[in-house]
Amino acid sequence: MAWLVLVVAGLFEVVWAFSMKQSEGFTRLWPSVVTFAAMLVSFGLLAWSMRFLPLGTAYTVWTGIGAVGAFIVGILFLGEAASPLRLIAALLIVSGLLLMKLSSSA
């Protein structure tokens, strides 16, 4: 269950990163509200998952999901570049996340 909660926390990290971009430096009300609400949910779920998972594993997986998720959202919705080097970098992050999961006893 802790792993599922951690994945959801990571997905909410993607939401807040995207909405923060849409807030234009917190000058737009509703994207700013979404940013802070998603942050609260993301941090809360991360904190809960850390009760059962090692700190290093939980934090690494959370930030990795957020980083790769934001990368994908940037490509799909914001027209950001999907160059071969950026794709390889994202693949390496995902590989690291899988290794963290495999190495965890929780």
TrEMBL record:
Its main location: membrane. InterPro entries: EmrE-like, Small_drug/metabolite_transptr, Small_multidrug_res. This is Guanidinium exporter. PANTHER family: GUANIDINIUM EXPORTER, SMR FAMILY PROTON-DEPENDENT DRUG EFFLUX TRANSPORTER SUGE. It is found in: Cell membrane. Coiled coil: none annotated. It comes from Paeniroseomonas aquatica. Keywords: Cell membrane, Membrane, Transmembrane, Transmembrane helix, Transport. Belongs to the drug/metabolite transporter (DMT) superfamily. Small multidrug resistance (SMR) (TC 2.A.7.1) family. Gdx/SugE subfamily. It is a multi-pass membrane protein. The chain crosses the membrane at residues 27-47, 59-79, 85-102. The keyword Transmembrane applies.
